[in-house]
Design brief:
This protein has about 300 residues and is an alpha+beta fold. It has 2 domains: about 35 residues, no CATH class; about 240 residues, no CATH class. Helix content is about 30%, strand content about 20%. It contains 9 helices and 10 strands. Strands 3, 4, 5, 8, 9 and 10 form a 6-stranded mixed β-sheet that branches. Strands 1-2 form a two-stranded antiparallel ribbon. Helix 3 packs parallel to helix 9. The radius of gyration is 22 Å and the shape is globular. The N and C termini lie far apart (about 60 Å).
Length: about 300
């Protein structure tokens, strides 16, 4: 199905539309566009058809909550998560840092954090939570869509986000995110293809996940990698995005422990590529705890 431009019939010369109706129509249209993001996604297949998926933007208040988790709360969690065991990113033993062209205002090329995911996948859904928290320590999201994993897989409808059309800005690093498939399953046996990999991204996937079927994969500048999620999606079972975000304020919450412990470990890995900058982030007590667990050496 295609979206066509609406046809406009000619009006008699003596008949005009009152300006107040035109203004009212523009206000209504603007309100609709602010409330949702409507994305046309092409479906691979002989039919050449397309679907329209409505994505709700994450509220600004939620992004603020994720970016302003108190340091004392993250420190209280550290790397402790007894209810949901945590897997930390592992060193790759590669010496070359995957960097973006140019610099971010700090005099150095920005290291690249690469996320390879799929909207339908529950483990990718879980991993976006600590990744968004960690990345928010180095920059800010201007746009991030709300998403749920597929209802047709294990840990169905896990509340999460999508990096499809996300906007992120940082002076310290670059985010490259590929959502390979959507949560749409129009044919009943395959998910809608979204984004394809660049040659450099494909090289990373081939190096760490030759099957290219594990979602997610997180590559931190070719220095640290995590194939799969940091913790089981079961810890998020039955919760909405708002409920997960609210739980991050309580360091004894299993949700906060899983998300913040993982975020501390991701942050520690990122800091190895930024020269331990910014200092307020990389020298926070929660991140130092992750350094100790991951055996990351610290100068001095």
């Amino acid at each position: 199905m295609s979206l066509d431009e609406p046809e406009h019939a000619e009006l008699p010369a003596a008949r005009t539309i009152p300006r107040r109706y035109v203004a009212l129509g523009l206000v209504i249209l603007a309100t609709i566009l602010v409330g949702v993001l409507i994305v046309v996604r092409n479906i691979d297949g002989p039919s050449g058809t397309s679907d329209v998926e409505t994505i709700t933007p994450a509220p600004g208040s939620m992004l603020t909550t994720l970016s302003q988790v108190p340091a004392a709360t993250s420190a209280a969690v550290g790397t402790t998560s007894p209810d949901a065991p945590i897997s930390a990113p592992e060193p790759t033993r590669k010496t070359a840092v995957w960097s973006a062209d140019g610099d971010g205002g700090n005099g150095d090329a920005r290291p690249v954090v690469f996320f390879y995911g799929a909207e339908f996948a529950p483990y990718a859904a879980a991993e976006r939570w600590p990744l968004v928290v960690a990345l928010s320590r180095f920059g800010s999201f201007g746009q991030l869509g709300l998403m749920q994993s597929s209802p047709s897989v294990a840990f169905s409808d896990t509340a999460t986000f999508t990096f499809w059309h996300a906007a992120y800005k940082s002076d310290w690093l670059d985010l490259e995110a590929v959502e390979r498939y959507s949560a749409l399953n129009p044919s009943g046996n395959s998910y809608t293809a979204l984004q394809t990999l660049t040659s450099q991204q494909a090289e990373a996937v081939a190096a760490y996940d030759p099957s290219a079927k594990t979602f997610p994969m997180l590559d931190i500048a070719n220095r640290y990698v995590l194939v799969g999620s940091s913790f089981s999606p079961s810890v998020l079972d039955g919760l909405t995005q708002s409920q997960v975000a609210a739980d991050l304020a309580f360091p004894t919450s299993p949700v906060a422990q899983a998300v913040l412990a993982s975020a501390n470990e991701i942050t520690a890995a990122i800091c190895t590529t930024t020269g331990q900058r910014p200092g307020a982030v990389c020298h926070a007590r929660g991140v130092l705890a992750a350094d100790a667990k991951m055996q990351i050496p610290r100068a001095g």
